[in-house]
Amino acid sequence: MQVHSFLHSDTETYTHVLADIQQNVCAVIDPVLDFDAKSGRTGTTGIDEVIDFVQSQDWQLVYIIETHAHADHLSGAIHLKETLGGQLVMGRYITDVQKIFKQIYNLDTRFRTDASQFDILTDAGDTLALGDITITAMHVPGHTPADMAYVATDDEKTVVFVGDTIFAPDVGTARCDFPGGDAKTLYQSIKKLLALADDTVMYLCHDYPSKGRRHCPTTTVAAQKQNNIHVKDGINEAEFVQMRERRDATLAMPRLIIPSVQVNIDAGHLPEPETNGTRYLKVPINVFGQ
């Protein structure tokens, strides 16, 4: 098993490539599409770096895995799939998120809320075979209802791709104030992750390093239990919920939440062009934030 991580610097998002190098197969977790909010322009510079790497290794892309419908970047899954193939994987509870945001964006009847935009839907305990690597889905709601972590195991080691559920120890944990989020549920989900073996490497979806520390894509279960500022050993559920809810009340909305969620609940597809050939995103007024 090999994992290679690519930092998308504009959104501080990590895209990971998980590979069985003996069988020349791989999966890409949480790909990012460049998006400039000021101009409304998309780009593929970031995801093309991942594509070039996979092609240079002569690996077959089997899965494109989204840990959840991200609110801070647009998914690069469609460009990745059109270029390299692969099946698009999402947790089955994305249907809950689709129904919530279909109402918020007032999407018309063409928008499907049955998750049929995705190729594979996973539930807790479902497995995917990637060569000799077994990828097991772990349902970790709280940030959103649909969040999934993915535990990858082979004969040598176990790693876990945690999405937005938990961050580096000095950063803490995901916010829970988006529609469908819940701090108590997040605490219970994190406890599932921290029940993995102490030496399990956690691959993070984001890193927002404190001053003086460089971005890093990984941590360990042991490091989280010892040092995570929000959920280290000794912090109980009530303390966590109180902290999380107070903190969330002070946070601004993510810079790209309005375009990101709109695109990502549709598996990364941009809206269909209108009669003039231009695609448009909707902006709900006075809905998000305070």
Automatic annotation (TrEMBL):
GO molecular function terms attached to this record: hydrolase activity; metal ion binding; sulfur dioxygenase activity
SUPFAM superfamilies (UniProt xref): Metallo-hydrolase/oxidoreductase (SSF56281)
GO biological process, one term: glutathione metabolic process
Official protein name in the record: MBL fold metallo-hydrolase
Pfam families registered for this protein in UniProt: Lactamase_B (PF00753)
Keywords on record: Hydrolase, Metal-binding
Gene3D superfamilies: Ribonuclease Z/Hydroxyacylglutathione hydrolase-like
Taxonomic source organism: Psychrobacter urativorans
Entry-linked InterPro entries: Metallo-B-lactamas, Mito_Persulfide_Diox, POD-like_MBL-fold, RibonucZ/Hydroxyglut_hydro
SMART domains: Lactamase_B (SM00849)
Metallo-beta-lactamase domain span: 12-206
Entry superkingdom: Bacteria
